[in-house]
Design goal:
There is one protein chain. The protein is an alpha/beta fold. It contains 10 helices and 15 strands. The strands form 4 sheets. Strands 9-8-7-10-11-15-12 form a 7-stranded mixed β-sheet, sandwiched between helices. Strands 2-1-6-5 form a 4-stranded antiparallel β-sheet, with no helix packed on it. Helix 3 runs parallel beside helix 4 and helix 6 runs parallel beside helix 7.
């Protein structure tokens, strides 16, 4: 009996198994752990400063083989994983790292057959993960403002899958302008925004998303994160925003020498998720006590300009506390100046003169 999956394999699946063939990308690991990615060609050679490896020695060999270098060293040959491919493929823009792409697929609940909207495309690294998740039966509608980035992304996807993916369409243009004419209202399951100002797209994204649909935003800075969260709250058609970042630290494993590696994948970006509410529905207010100064009675989110210290969550410092701190600082300075009585007397005289000019300034607050 023929397996239906073998009769109609998913796009690119045939390139992920079997012996090495001409045109396959192969990752070679040398004895020092250094990685080299090559594309197999009959009669070609891969050269290093010590010698070469013949491509013909790899063509027809099974995945996970060891090939002998002309210097006598052994090189391990493996097909690169998706995470390896996105870090070595040509880049037009910074790629979404595998640690973030994996969380986007999981926390946005990207599933086979889903209709997903993505903006922007960049070099296509995240698009590859989304296409794998939606499968041939799903749809990925990607929007990119720059034609050159879109072309690089298409080429990278074509190289990885071996052909154009049937679920993928790339539109060059602005999401706000192009999305309403590309999808019917309420027909999109998931939206992924990897762009500079995702808050500008919340209206059109909310109209396109089905009730309960997920929006996930990938932003680089804390100010972007705050701006999109506050805009979503002001809009009112979303659930309470959830945000996080991930830090990945590898470990050195050699005998009993087990310790964290000196280098790690630190901050790459923040992820924020919200879900679309049904039309006419307002999310219940969370019963929580906001930080002092986080919002005021006349609070209005800024369209332009700088954020105030209170809006950024900094605790407001009262004038009373400032005066107390200044008094303690003067007392500390006086204590350290005991070796110079003249300087101490001058400092105290200056302090007495200042307090005489402003009588009762401290007493108004109950400070003697």
């Amino acid at each position: 009996m023929t397996d239906p999956d073998d009769a109609h394999p998913a796009t690119g699946a045939d390139l992920r198994r079997g012996p090495f063939r001409a045109g396959d990308r192969v990752q070679l690991t040398d004895p020092k752990g250094r990685l080299h990615t090559i594309t197999l060609e009959p009669g070609a050679t891969f050269h290093t400063h010590r010698g070469h490896v013949r491509h013909d020695d790899l063509i027809g060999a099974p995945d996970g083989s060891v090939v002998r270098h002309s210097s006598g060293a052994d090189y391990l040959a493996l097909r690169p994983l998706l995470s390896d491919y996105v870090l070595s493929m040509p880049r037009g823009a910074q790629v979404v790292y595998p640690k973030d792409a994996g969380q986007i697929v999981t926390y946005a609940d990207i599933y086979p057959g889903a209709t997903v909207v993505e903006a922007g495309v960049g070099s296509g690294a995240l698009s590859l993960s989304l296409l794998r998740a939606v499968g041939d039966s799903g749809r990925l509608l990607s929007f990119e403002r720059r034609e050159d980035f879109a072309e690089i992304a298409r080429a990278n996807a074509r190289a990885f899958f071996g052909r154009d993916h049937p679920a993928w369409s790339v539109t060059v243009g602005d999401l706000v302008e192009a999305l309403p004419g590309s999808v019917a209202p309420g027909s999109v399951d998931r939206v992924v925004l990897d762009m500079l100002a995702p808050w500008e797209c919340l209206d059109v994204v909310h109209e396109a998303l089905a009730p309960g649909g997920v929006l996930i935003c990938y932003v680089a800075t804390a100010t972007q994160l705050s701006r999109v969260a506050e805009t979503a709250r002001t809009h009112g058609g979303w659930t309470e925003p959830q945000a996080w970042e991930s830090l990945v630290r590898g470990w050195h494993l050699e005998g009993l020498a087990v310790r964290p590696q000196h280098r790690m994948h630190g901050h790459t970006g923040f992820l924020l998720t919200v879900r679309s509410l049904a039309p006419g529905t307002a999310a219940p207010l969370l019963k929580r006590r906001p930080a002092k100064g986080a919002y005021g009675e006349d609070y209005v989110p800024h369209d332009e300009g700088e954020w105030s210290a209170e809006e950024l969550g900094e605790r407001a410092v009262s004038a009373k506390r400032v005066r107390r701190t200044a008094r303690d600082a003067r007392a500390t300075a006086d204590a350290r100046a005991t070796e110079d009585p003249g300087a101490t007397a001058d400092a105290r005289a200056t302090t007495d003169a200042q307090e005489t000019e402003a009588p009762g300034a401290a007493g108004d607050e109950g400070i003697p």
